[in-house]
Amino acid sequence: MSRAAAVLALLPALVGLAACRKAEPADVTPPPGETWLTDAQIQGARLHIEPVESRLLALHLVTAGRVAFDEGRVAHVFSPVSGRVTRVLAAFGQRVAQGAPLAVIESPDLGSARSDLIKARSDLAAAEREFDRQKELLAHQASAERDYEAAQNAAAKARAEVERAQKRLDMLHASESDGDIQHFALRSPIAGEVINRTATVGLEVQGMLSSANVVAELFTVGDIDRVWVWGDLYERDLARVRPGQSVRISSVAYPDRQITGAVDFVSDALDKDTHTARFRCVVANRDHLLKPEMYVTLSLEAERQQALAVPSSAVLRSGERHLVFVRDGKTEDGRVRFRERSVELGEGDDGWIAVKSGLESGESVVVAGSILLSGSGS
């Protein structure tokens, strides 16, 4: 709540406090920086007073983050062949198994790959027959040794060509026995959900095995039950973050839901432009609240420290100063004295702020309603 809104909310109490102060004797005026109130006025203004104590503060480092796929759980699917999409089998959001067909592409590359393998096998058979013939002739001293060696080399090259053609066909997930030699089934390499799809019926595609410079991604299949969240660290915070550290994640999409994860990687190098180091968190995401490319806020428990602390509601800001109101005994007429006190603050967390100087343990400070004292003091 802003200071203006707080004043409006407490306006009735402030009016009552001002009325009570008008009833005070005109010759009794608190010095600057002090406010004197009766017990009835304190109760009417709803002031809450608590002693200053040492607390164990869990200090958090807060930074911005971005959600990304776990790279072991996402596949960007391209076509290895050139051709035209004739059927699209997978819809947006559809869950697919590993090896499930996503689309069918009519492509001459498939027929060409099978033809290359058939030709390579035929050439190998001819080369092996020639090698056997030259081997027999050499055994009977009816052929020169160089002819035998040439036949041996030709047979070796033919076997290598068969292996190359077979591997190309394997890359296309096809076999020599398939009846359809023109239609290629584009399959999912992993099990997951169809996150993105650009394939449409009639789309002309370039294959990854072609010489084209630009090859379009046709499908993105991913599993977001577990995701990565990337964040950036300034150099001064590097020593405060380490693998295994717990992290809390919040987003504007789900402000009331906090997701937990753990740091699993901190970069050893800083970005030359931003001078920050990246770190990564692994996060279980079974409810799919976190979406890839979503921006989130990361809160890491950097350390715990024992420190003198006050609630953040007790602190007011006046220019460059931070102020609290300390209860300091009573006046001669029995009113409670509140003194304005400048304090030097440390780090804060979970509604509490460490106090470096300006307060002592056991002193009583106003933790709620101090804005009324600021507005009513002389």
Task: Briefly say what this structure is.
By secondary structure, this protein is α+β, with helices and mostly antiparallel strands.
Can you characterise this structure?
The protein has 378 residues and is α+β, with helices and mostly antiparallel strands. It folds into 4 domains: 3-56 and 306-376, conserved putative lor/sdh protein from methanococcus maripaludis s2 fold (Beta Barrel), CATH 2.40.420; 61-71 and 224-304, Efflux pump adaptor protein, beta barrel domain (Elongation Factor Tu (Ef-tu), domain 3, Beta Barrel), CATH 2.40.30.170; 74-104 and 184-223, RNA polymerase II/Efflux pump adaptor protein, barrel-sandwich hybrid domain (OB fold (Dihydrolipoamide Acetyltransferase, E2P), Beta Barrel); 108-181, Orthogonal Bundle (Helix Hairpins), CATH 1.10.287. The chain has helices at residues 3-9, 11-22, 39-44, 108-139, 145-171, 370-376; strands at residues 34-37, 48-51, 53-69, 74-78, 83-88, 95-96, 101-106, 183-187, 192-197, 204-205, 217-222, 226-234, 246-250, 259-266, 276-284, 295-311, 316-318, 321-330, 336-349, 352-357, 364-368. The strands form 4 sheets. A 6-stranded antiparallel beta barrel has the order 3-12-15-14-13-16. Strand 18 and strand 19 (336-349) form a beta hairpin. Helix 4 runs antiparallel to helix 5. The longest helix has 32 residues, at 108-139. It is elongated and about 135 Å long.
List the helices and strands and how they pair.
Blueprint: H1 3-9, H2 11-22, E1 34-37, H3 39-44, E2 48-51, E3 53-69, E4 74-78, E5 83-88, E6 95-96, E7 101-106, H4 108-139, H5 145-171, E8 183-187, E9 192-197, E10 204-205, E11 217-222, E12 226-234, E13 246-250, E14 259-266, E15 276-284, E16 295-311, E17 316-318, E18 321-330, E19 336-349, E20 352-357, E21 364-368, H6 370-376
Antiparallel strand pairs: 1-19, 2-21, 3-12, 3-16, 4-11, 5-7, 5-10, 6-9, 7-8, 9-11, 12-15, 13-14, 13-16, 14-15, 16-20, 17-18, 18-19, 19-20
Helix pairs in contact: 4-5
